[in-house]
Amino acid sequence: xxxxxxxxxxxxxxxxxxxxxxxxxxxxxxxxxxxxxxxxxxxxxxxxxxxxxxxxxxxxxxxxxxxxxxxxxxxxxxxxxxxxxxxxxxxxxxxxxx
Length: 98
Prior knowledge:
- With about 100 residues, the protein is mainly α.
- It has helices at about 30-45, 55-70, 80-95, and strands at about 15-20, 30.
- It has one domain (about 10-95).
- The chain is built from 3 helices and 2 strands.
- α2 (about 55-70) runs antiparallel to α3.
- The radius of gyration is 14 Å and the shape is globular.
């Protein structure tokens, strides 16, 4: 099994989280590392002087939901994954310098 987001194999990851079993036999997986990255994006305080990310984060979560749903149903989720990656990059750019 591989992370559906970063494509790392389960061998290289301590844990993979999969989409719900009732979705489809074609399940989507996300590794703990990708969950941490997304969690960090969502939980990080917005630095002063940067744009409000709440709308961007909502769009990122919606995109993640669409990607997992499509991947779980066995469909080609390439466009959804590309959209999630683009949205994550936009959110990261709004964070400002560390």
